[in-house]
């Protein structure tokens, strides 16, 4: 069962911008470049010649760059309902980060507003809260 939902973050952390390295004499930005050198021959290696590995269970496991990128996208963006609990179950210290404001979106899936409203009314009548898992966009 699916409904269209959009999220709005009420609190977004501010980050310090990344530093830009400048040449000392001209104050022009410096272009950084990483090159790998073969231990045996001393030649520069092409990006496709460099293998990635992870030590797992005491052994080296080789992988491609595409396989490494796939680790960061384990699931599609979604909100999965885990269950419902009484409101008294939720304690103030359970919220470990800023909350999101969820609202229905009929442009994604038609009928989402009616379904979302019915869900909110039913939870209010039963004095319960929704427990969910959020997988945000990467």
Would you kindly provide a brief summary of this structure?
The protein is α+β, with helices and mostly antiparallel strands.
Question: Could you walk me through the main structural features you see in this protein, from its secondary elements to its overall organization?
Answer:
The chain is 14% helix and 30% strand. It has helices at residues 65-70, 112-125; strands spanning 5-9, 36-37, 44-45, 52-56, 59-63, 78-86, 100-104, 128-135. It is built from 2 helices and 8 strands. The strands form 4 sheets. It has a two-stranded antiparallel sheet with strand order 1-7. A hairpin with a 2-residue loop joins strand 4 and strand 5 (59-63). The chain is elongated and about 75 Å long. By secondary structure, the protein is an alpha+beta fold.
* Ends distance: 23 Å
| Helical residues, percent | 10-25%
- Tell me, briefly, the overall form: elongated
Low-pLDDT parts are none
Search tags:
138 residues; alpha+beta; two-stranded antiparallel ribbon; 2 helices; 8 strands; elongated
Please describe the topology of this protein:
Blueprint: E1 5-9, E2 36-37, E3 44-45, E4 52-56, E5 59-63, H1 65-70, E6 78-86, E7 100-104, H2 112-125, E8 128-135
Antiparallel strand pairs: 1-7, 2-3, 4-5, 6-8
